[in-house]
What we know:
The chain is α+β, with helices and mostly antiparallel strands and 216 residues long. It has a single domain (19-172, 195-203), classed as Sandwich (Immunoglobulin-like), CATH 2.60.40. It contains 5 helices and 9 strands, in the order αββαββββαββααβ. It has helices spanning 2-11, 48-55, 113-120, 153-170, 183-192; strands at residues 23-32, 35-43, 60-70, 78-91, 98-102, 108-110, 124-130, 140-149, 198-203. Strand 5 (98-102) and strand 6 (108-110) form a beta hairpin. The radius of gyration is 20 Å and the shape is elongated. The termini are far apart.
Amino acid sequence: MKSVAILGVVGALLWPRAAAAVEVVGTAVARTSDRVSVTLRVDDAFSNRIAQSLDRGMPVTVVVTVDVWQNRTGWFDRLMAEQTVVLRGFRNAWSDDFTLRRGQERDLIIATRDELEQEIARPMRVRVLPVERLAPADRYYAIVTASVKPLTVEDLEAVEKWLSGEAKRSGKPGPGSIAKLPSYLVGMLANLSGFGDEVARWRSGDFTVAALAQSP
């Protein structure tokens, strides 16, 4: 019975899925001081589906992950380092503008959804690992993954708290704990309801330490 209630909550948010539009562009691998860095932009982060969810008050989370791998011919490639940048945007209920949170930086208030998307698309440089960790004779490559997440486990927890409060006020039983479902099931429900992640990836060509250009 609890599973049926959970499916009902997720299904209530259902609308037709739109094709993923997000892109990783403006990419380059370089040496910034003593670190390997990757520059990039996240373009078209808001498909129609994402834009609709923002307008309806749901937050959107953009997670950018940058990996540097050692290319080991004839063997499994080795992950050297990984860095993640998280951007979270949401509509402000009382003022009707938007807030963008980027890591530990101060919240940025933005007037419109289009301007929020433009701010997310600003070029970013991610410093991944010290150059000294790379062997001069070896070959490496970088992978950038940008995931636009209209529904996260944290969002489910917030919905669950709200539903629990409504249940207490109305005296009716709540739908059960959505956020305590196994993560694979949460992901499956999100995809079935049209709230699954939209993902874009980029892979650099192979590079060596000597081939890394200096960037300012």
